[in-house]
C-alpha cells in the first residue's frame, strides 16, 4: 500500500511539472510575439544617420565610430531582437526587423537619411533604401553578407 501511495504521489508531481512547464512555454511564446524587433540608442542632434550592425552584434559597436566621425547628425544605434539582452521575436526574423525599421522611419517622419550597415546591416540598408528611395539619401555598406534573407 505504501508503494502505491508513493507511485501516485510521484505520478502527480510528474504531471504537475509537465503542465507547469507547458504553461511556461506558452507564456514565453506570447511574450515573443509582443517583443520589439529592435532597440535604439540615440546620440546627438541633427539629420538622421542609422547604424545597423551585423547579425548578433549590439548597436553599441558603432559608438567609437560615431565619436570619431563627430558628424552633426542624430545617430541611431540599432540592436536587434534576440541579442544584446533584447527579447526574441517571431520568424521571419529578418523581414520583421526590416519592416520594423521602415515603420520607425515613417512614424518618425525621417528624411535625408544616411544608413550605415555592416554585414547583415548592409543588406538591411540596401533593402530599406530600395523601399524608401525618397527618404534615404545615402547608404554606406561595410562587408554586406548576401545570404541572410528568408524570402
UniProtKB/TrEMBL annotation:
Location of the AB hydrolase-1 domain: 47-144
The protein's name in its UniProt record: Alpha/beta hydrolase
Gene3D superfamilies for this protein: alpha/beta hydrolase
Keywords, sorted A to Z: Hydrolase
Superkingdom, natural source: Bacteria
Higher taxonomy: Bacteria, Pseudomonadati, Bacteroidota, Flavobacteriia, Flavobacteriales
Annotated GO MF terms: hydrolase activity
One Pfam family of this chain: Abhydrolase_1
Amino acid at each position: 500500500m505504501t508503494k502505491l501511495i508513493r507511485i501516485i504521489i510521484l505520478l502527480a508531481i510528474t504531471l504537475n511539472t509537465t503542465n507547469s512547464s507547458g504553461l511556461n512555454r506558452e507564456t514565453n511564446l506570447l511574450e515573443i510575439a509582443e517583443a520589439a524587433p529592435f532597440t535604439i540608442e540615440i546620440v546627438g542632434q541633427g539629420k538622421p544617420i542609422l547604424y545597423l550592425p551585423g547579425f548578433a552584434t549590439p548597436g553599441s559597436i558603432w559608438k567609437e565610430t560615431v565619436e570619431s566621425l563627430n558628424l552633426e547628425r542624430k545617430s541611431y544605434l540599432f540592436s536587434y531582437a534576440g541579442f544584446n539582452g533584447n527579447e526574441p521575436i517571431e520568424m521571419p526574423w529578418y523581414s520583421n526587423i526590416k519592416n520594423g525599421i521602415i515603420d520607425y522611419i515613417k512614424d518618425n517622419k525621417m528624411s535625408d537619411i544616411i544608413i550605415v550597415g555592416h554585414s547583415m546591416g548592409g543588406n538591411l540598408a540596401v533593402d530599406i533604401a530600395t523601399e524608401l528611395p525618397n527618404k534615404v539619401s545615402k547608404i554606406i555598406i561595410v562587408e554586406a553578407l548576401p545570404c541572410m534573407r528568408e524570402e
